[in-house]
Amino acid sequence: MTIWARRLLVVGPWAAAFVGWQWFQRAEGLSTVETAQRLVDAIDGAWWGIAAFAVAYVLRPILLFPASVATIASGVLFGPVVGVLVVVVAANASAMLAYAIGRGLAGETTDRSTDERDGLIARWGDRMRSNSFEAVFIMRLLFLPYDLVNYTSGALRIRWTSFLLATALGTLPGTIAFVLLGASVERLDDGLGGINPWTVVASVVIFLVSIAIARVTRARAALPDGGGSADSTELLIG
Predict the structure, then answer these.
(1) Start-to-end C-alpha separation, the chain
(2) What is the DSSP letter of 226?
(3) Domain encompassing residue 95
(4) CA distances (Å), origin 188, targets 197, 203, 227
(5) What is the pLDDT of residue 113?
(6) Helix %, strand %, coil % for the chain, to 5?
(7) How confident is the prediction for the chain on average, in pLDDT?
(8) Quick one: 116 exposed, middle or buried, by C-beta within 10 A (0-12, 13-18, 19+)?
(9) Share of the chain above pLDDT 70, in %
(10) pTM of the shown model
(11) Rounded distance, CA 61 to CA 154, Å?
């Protein structure tokens, strides 16, 4: 089977699912938050709720449904402890799904002829592949778009073990922050009025700490004994 046939097999179902989902939301007049609240209402208190939510979360990247909203919904549904545990498992599974889709679109090998048209793209791709863990870890801590990182990592064919480990560790601060935010409200559509201010403070602190860790990691990579890692972080975060 040719590379373009394989890409069509990946893109066809993916595009059909995405278009169908967009049509459904428009037909129902639902915003992203309202859609998430419908899911919360449907499974709240059900014995199968955790499994249903986990499946929905894993399939989320196909629909490009925001990971942040889904993570907050976990806090609303399951509270701070169970909510974090559910998201840790489901988010990493969803990341691997998006990674696999990106890898399927890229084919068996990266297209060097395309990379060579732009030196920056070539360097960025090479650094991502040679410093996979560090690159993904920093992008996670900086809260770069979750699914964009997933699909790009797969398309660049970085090592999946490094990708998964960096995702598991790098997304933990954000997961805790967003789940805590969700756990402080009764409903997603309550707005800011229902938020516990102390939970907001905790979420902001976790967010700032993750940014600080990313900066420290970047600074350590820039040391002389950091080798080529410094170049990769420069390409990633300027």
Answers:
(1) 40
(2) G
(3) 3-237
(4) 16, 16, 46
(5) 46
(6) 80, 0, 20
(7) 79
(8) exposed
(9) 71
(10) 0.77
(11) 13
Residues 156 and 129 sit within 8 Å (Cβ to Cβ): yes
- The token duo for 29 is 């007049």
Pair 127, 231: CB distance under 8 Å: yes
User: Residues 178-188: what's their mean pLDDT?
Assistant: 86
In angstroms, the CA 8 to CA 154 distance is 17
Q: Which two tokens stand for residue 49?
A: 């709720």
Task: From 53, 81, 85, 50, select the one nearest 69 (Cα to Cα).
Answer: 53
Tell me which DSSP letter residue 238 carries.
Answer: -
What tens digit of pLDDT does each residue of 49-103 get? 999 999 999 999 999 899 999 999 999 999 999 999 999 999 999 999 999 998 8
Cα separations (Å) of 93 from 61, 101, 120, 157, 226? 10, 13, 31, 17, 31
Least reliable range by pLDDT among 18-22, 110-114, 173-177? 110-114
How many distinct structural domains can be found in the chain? 1
**Per-residue pLDDT tens over the stretch 126-138:** 777 777 888 898 8
- The DSSP secondary-structure symbol of 188 reads G
Tokens of 173: 């601060």
Q: Give counts: helices (H), strands (E), the chain.
A: 12, 0
Q: How far apart are CA 158 and CA 161, in angstroms?
A: 9
Q: CA–CA separation, 187 vs 60, rounded Å?
A: 20
Instruction: Annotate 39-52 with b (16+ C-beta within 10 A) or e (fewer).
Output: bbeebeeeeebbee
